Amino acid sequence: MADLTRKEVIMILATATNARLSGVDLSGLDLSGLNFSGADLILANLSEANLSYAYMRGAHIEDAKLERTILVNVNLKEASLKGSNLKGADLSNANLTDANLFGADLTGANLTGAKGVVR
Q1: Residues near 91 by Cβ (< 8 Å), separated by ≥ 6?
Q2: What is the pLDDT of residue 118?
Q3: Buried-most residue among 57, 66, 97, 109 (CB within 10 A)?
């Protein structure tokens, strides 16, 4: 169960540059289309959340839980997903240009149409 609602997340993102959401449980929430640019999502639980069309450029999503998360058409340019669990995530058409996926678990992830250089 998520710690925050979509409305609360929107308020945090609207009032903070590089929002700090480290360790927060956002599992199962519809967060599609939101701007998480530069956000701190380290150790966050985003399992089964819908982040399609979200803007996450430069976000810090290290060691996060993203199992079965919908990341369709998400912009993860220059984002860090080091050590994150992306098992079964849908990253189709995602922008992964210069994204850091070192140590990330992409077992069963859908990367159809994803673009960019993965380090």
Answers
A1: 71, 72, 74, 109, 110, 111, 114
A2: 52
A3: 66
The model's pLDDT over 93-110, given as tens digits with 9 standing for 90+, comes to 999 999 999 999 999 999
| Separation between Cα atoms, residue 102 and residue 78, nearest integer Å | 13
- Specify whether the CB–CB gap between 100 and 79 falls below 8 A: yes
Q: Which two tokens stand for residue 8?
A: 């609360």
Quick: pLDDT tens for 25-83. 999 999 999 999 999 999 999 999 999 999 999 999 999 999 999 999 999 999 999 99
Domains of the chain in start order, with CATH, are 1-119 (2.160.20.80)
Which of 59, 57, 30 is closest to 46 using CA atoms?
Answer: 30
Length reported for the chain: 119
Strand partners, 40: 20, 60
